[in-house]
């Protein structure tokens, strides 16, 4: 008999399911304890700490899952640190979502694929074991264990990000990376791949904002020649290309609702069909998503499916804006300076003056690291100076102020009227989430006048109402 801490507790009122799960788990080296009723399960977790709980949400005749949710809450009261994986029917995704809000670690839909279930269990166990790893690790300690060389930063918030990367990289749990534009989300996605067992396997990046809805399936799942009018030859989809590696779904917040459903299925079941081919294919990919939009708010507005949201963000990594890690500005600026000098074979003597570094730290950098990088590069190339001073940087700054109130008459450089106009339009776009009529109203412009200004400033827009 194994001790309770070695056991997976399986709760289901269907004896056939209990015994098949028991067999599957035992065969894979897990101790198993089974319960066929919620009350039995509560008694068990009151007295024992299993390593994981597998919980079927539908008991008896009741199909609304209330009993399952109530049981989950109780398990969480007695054993807050034990991961719980829910099993739900396809029709009851809402229930799974509810369960995730109550602290479940993951959910599996019935009928489940054994491989998917075992993977979810392995992930949850690895994550629980590593919760306390590297809590205080500094940059040097992290560098000893992980490949993070492309990522500069040692400010507390960045160290938090890097510790999380280290902790989760070797699982295959989906990760959602959030953060403003230019904060380094893509670098983090690459670091996750490079520090996983999938290193050396494909890392496939897909910019979902750039794929037309009508081409989504063909692009992601591939097509057979003749599957539709323009399908002149077979095409391999991105999921298949990423097989055994990582797929990076960038700008996930730009995905329309119809495509969201199609994505959900492959994330849920790890299977898909090539367009024009009825055969179901299996893939083994780790999914990393990124967005600079507020997905939570989009869920509330009904623009992003809640079930997909919970499917992609079992782990969230929030990359902080540059203004929250000012001490990294110096490190970043020096590195970008060295890089541009090396690339352009500029004299190695180029330096940033102390005042220039101080000035950089105080900039709002609405475009974050990308803006800092561009500014340093531009200044080195255009100023030709050996020592970069504040005025060199200031005269090359084209970044936009974060908002009109950031501008004071004392600031070293005043934005031009054009820059202000662009900044305001971008702000309004953010505030109205791209809704053209609303933006026009907010700015007191006709729609035509707004479109002309988009063109003038080269601001990409989507004509959505
Ligand atoms: N911590 C960092 N160390 C070194 N370079 C960085 C760091 N963060 C970002 N960069 C650089 O800044 C630029 C922007 O980074 P990246 O493309 O990863 O941002 P992003 O968050 O994906 O932006 P967007 O939301 O616009 O897609 C890249 O050139 C990247 O190499
Ligand atoms: Mg990006």
Description:
This protein is of the alpha/beta class. The protein has helices spanning 15-27, 38-47, 66-78, 93-101, 114-130, 139-145, 156-169, 185-194, 216-221, 238-241, 257-269, 295-300, 306-312, 327-344, 354-362, 368-383, 390-396, 417-431, 436-443, 447-457; strands at 7-11, 31-35, 52-56, 84-89, 106-110, 175-178, 203-207, 222-223, 235-236, 246-250, 271-273, 280-282, 286-291, 315-318, 351-352, 387-388. A five-stranded parallel β-sheet has the order 2-1-3-4-5, with helices on both faces. Strands 7-10-13-6-14 form a five-stranded parallel β-sheet. The protein has a two-stranded antiparallel ribbon with strand order 8-9. Strand 4, helix 4 and strand 5 (106-110) form a beta-alpha-beta unit. Helix 14 crosses helix 15. The termini are far apart. Residues 399-406 have low confidence and may be disordered. The chain binds adenosine-5'-triphosphate and magnesium ion.
List keywords for this structure.
binds adenosine-5'-triphosphate; Rossmann fold; alpha/beta; 20 helices; five-stranded parallel sheet; binds magnesium ion
Uncertain runs are 399-406
CATH class term of the largest domain: Alpha Beta
The CATH superfamily of the largest domain appears as P-loop containing nucleotide triphosphate hydrolases
Radius of gyration: 26 Å
């Amino acid at each position: 008999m194994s001790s309770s801490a070695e056991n997976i507790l399986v709760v289901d009122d269907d004896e056939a399911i209990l015994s098949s799960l028991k067999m599957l788990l035992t065969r894979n080296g897990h101790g198993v304890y089974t319960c066929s009723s919620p009350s039995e399960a509560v008694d068990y977790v009151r007295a024992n700490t299993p390593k994981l709980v597998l919980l079927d949400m539908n008991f008896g005749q009741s199909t609304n899952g209330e009993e399952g949710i109530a049981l989950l809450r109780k398990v969480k009261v007695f054993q807050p640190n034990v991961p719980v994986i829910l099993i739900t029917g396809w029709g009851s995704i809402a229930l799974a979502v509810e369960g995730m809000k109550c602290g479940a670690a993951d959910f599996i839909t019935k009928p489940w694929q054994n491989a998917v279930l075992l993977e979810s269990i392995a992930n949850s166990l690895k994550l629980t074991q590593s919760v306390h790893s590297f809590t205080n690790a500094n940059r040097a300690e992290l560098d000893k264990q992980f490949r993070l060389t492309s990522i500069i930063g040692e400010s507390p918030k960045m160290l938090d990000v890097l510790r999380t990367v280290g902790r989760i990289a070797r699982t295959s749990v989906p990760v959602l990376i959030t953060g403003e534009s230019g904060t380094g989300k893509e670098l983090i996605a690459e670091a996750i791949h490079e520090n996983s067992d999938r290193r050396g396997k494909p890392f496939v990046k897909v910019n979902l904002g750039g794929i037309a809805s009508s081409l989504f399936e063909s692009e992601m799942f591939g097509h057979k020649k003749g599957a539709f009018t323009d399908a002149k030859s077979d095409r391999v989809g991105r999921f298949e290309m990423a097989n055994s590696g990582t797929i990076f779904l960038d700008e996930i917040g730009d995905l329309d609702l119809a495509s969201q459903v199609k994505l959900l299925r492959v994330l849920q079941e790890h299977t898909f069909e090539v367009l024009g081919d009825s055969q179901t294919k299996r893939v083994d990919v780790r999914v990393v998503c990124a967005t600079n939009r507020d997905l939570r708010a989009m869920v509330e507005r009904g623009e992003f499916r809640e079930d997909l949201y919970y499917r992609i963000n079992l782990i969230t990594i929030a990359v902080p804006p540059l203004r929250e890690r000012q001490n990294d500005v110096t490190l970043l600026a020096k590195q970008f300076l060295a890089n541009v000098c090396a690339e352009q074979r500029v004299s190695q003597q180029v330096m940033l003056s102390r005042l220039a570094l101080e000035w950089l730290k105080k900039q709002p950098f609405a475009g974050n690291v990308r803006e800092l990088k561009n500014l340093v590069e531009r200044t080195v190339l255009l100023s030709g100076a050996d020592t970069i001073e504040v005025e060199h940087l200031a005269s090359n700054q084209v970044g936009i102020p974060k908002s009109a109130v950031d501008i004071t008459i004392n600031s070293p450089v005043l934005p031009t009227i054009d820059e202000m106009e662009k900044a305001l339009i971008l702000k309004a776009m953010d505030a109205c989430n791209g809704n053209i009529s609303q933006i026009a109203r907010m700015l007191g412009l006709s729609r035509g006048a707004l479109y002309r200004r988009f063109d003038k400033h080269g601001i990409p827009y989507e004509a959505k109402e």
